[in-house]
Amino acid sequence: MDKQAKVYVAGHRGLVGSALVRKLEERGFANIVTATSKQLDLRDNAAVANFFRSNRPDYVYVAAAKVGGILANDTYPAEFLYDNLMIEANLIHEAYRSGVEKLLFLGSTCIYPKLAPQPLKEEYLLTGALEPTNEWYAVAKITGIKLCQAYRRQYGCRFIAAMPTNLYGPGDNFDLNRSHVLPALIRKFHDARLSGAPTVTVWGTGSPRREFLHSDDCADACLFLMGEYDNEGIINIGVGKDIPIRELAMLVGEAVGYRGDIVFDTSKPDGTPRKLVDVGKLTALGWTASIPLADGIRQAYRWFLQHPPGDAS
Ligand code: GFB
Fold first, then answer.
1. What residues pair up with 210 in beta bridges, in sequence order?
2. What's domain 7-306's architecture?
3. Cβ within 8 Å of residue 211, ≥6 positions away
4. 3-state DSSP: the chain helix, strand, coil percent, rounded to 5?
5. How remote is the C-alpha of 226 from its chain's centroid?
6. Known catalytic residue: 96?
7. Which of 112, 152, 242, 259 could connect to 209 by a Cys-Cys bridge, CB 3.0–4.6 Å?
């Protein structure tokens, strides 16, 4: 990728989008285009068309999405389906119409069947029923993949789709009703340490396994793929290792310095029992993750301490 190329990062205020901007700047890209949701409603086709006409980006990263943890996905099915369908359809269609050189669409590992064999190979897409708590989001993300593949087949667009595993990092959402498990646990253990609470409640049984990828690693993989990958097939981004939620809770408790007990609220959903991606395809191309989970958690906790929830600065 030419450092002078115009690169549009859609969703630059999100977890991956902000990491992408940091990484692009670090690598010397000087022509990065962004727009806040106030400036550009990505669900509005006319506005997106106008944005592409005026800005003419060469490369596009589709990191914009309506996202959330297991409870938010389950509570707002219409928003997770409609917003994500509109955002990706508008971005992909207008990228085609304005002749974008290359586009990378970010999906999610919840596109795989709930009970697919582990680790999840790219070829398992659309081979079984989805996890009900996030099927709305998954259907939208599968549609995004199919849009990339369809525009490639019919119009020859160099559009690729990457599936990152569960993400965390600086700038994460720490709102307990909407967040993913890792930022939720940071906040719960932190609050419990400050208040001296004897227990911290973790949702579900603690036995589901998840794989966690730092957003800086994810951004690094996205830049790598933009340069090295140009194929219709989807490609996983992960670390190739997962842990039970119970162990994650212990790691977060340690990083935060909490000394009380952990209890499990089994009235809350577990979701998919396991979601470990097969990273063979990405590793064969020459990329591997570099941030160990324990280091990443400590770093995310430092970020949280510097940006307390409710602090607008
Ligand atoms: O991260 P999470 O919300 O999403 O939950 P998913 C992962 C696991 O952690 C589930 C448990 O088994 C939760 O029950 N968990 C324990 C908690 N305590 C908590 C807590 O305080 N907050 C949360 N949020 N979870 C999402 C999908 O699935 O993953 C999305 O809903 C997306 O569509 C995303 O794909 C990456 O991994 O279950």
1. 243, 275
2. 3-Layer(aba) Sandwich (3.40)
3. 109, 165, 166, 238, 239, 240, 241, 242, 243, 275, 276, 277
4. 45, 15, 40
5. 17
6. no
7. 242
């068309």: which residue's tokens? 49
Q: Whose CA is nearest to atom 7 of ligand 1?
A: 181
213 lines ligand 1 (CB under 6 A): no
Atom in ligand 1 nearest the alpha carbon of residue 275: 37
**Residue showing tokens 């219709």:** 232
Question: For residue 208, what are the contacts with CB-CB under 8 A and spacing of at least 6?
Answer: 244, 245, 270, 271, 272, 273, 274
Instruction: Assess whether the C-beta atom of 166 lies below 6 angstroms from ligand 1.
Output: yes
The answer to whether the Cα torsion of 193, 252, 244, 272 is positive or negative is positive
Longest dimension (CA), the chain: 60
pLDDT tens per residue across span 133-168: 999 999 999 999 999 999 999 999 999 999 999 999
CA of 310 to the centre of ligand 1 (A): 22
State the pLDDT confidence band at 270, using cuts at 50, 70 and 90: very high
C-beta of 246 in contact with ligand 1 (< 6 A): no
Catalytic residue among 59, 61, 96, 137, which?
137
Nearest CA to ligand 1 atom 6: 70
Give the global pTM.
Answer: 0.97
Given a cut of 70, whether residue 313 has pLDDT beyond it is no
pLDDT of the residue at 244: 98
Domain locations along the chain: 7-306
Arithmetic mean of pLDDT, 249-269? 98
The whole-number pLDDT of residue 1 equals: 84
pLDDT at residue 311 in the model? 58
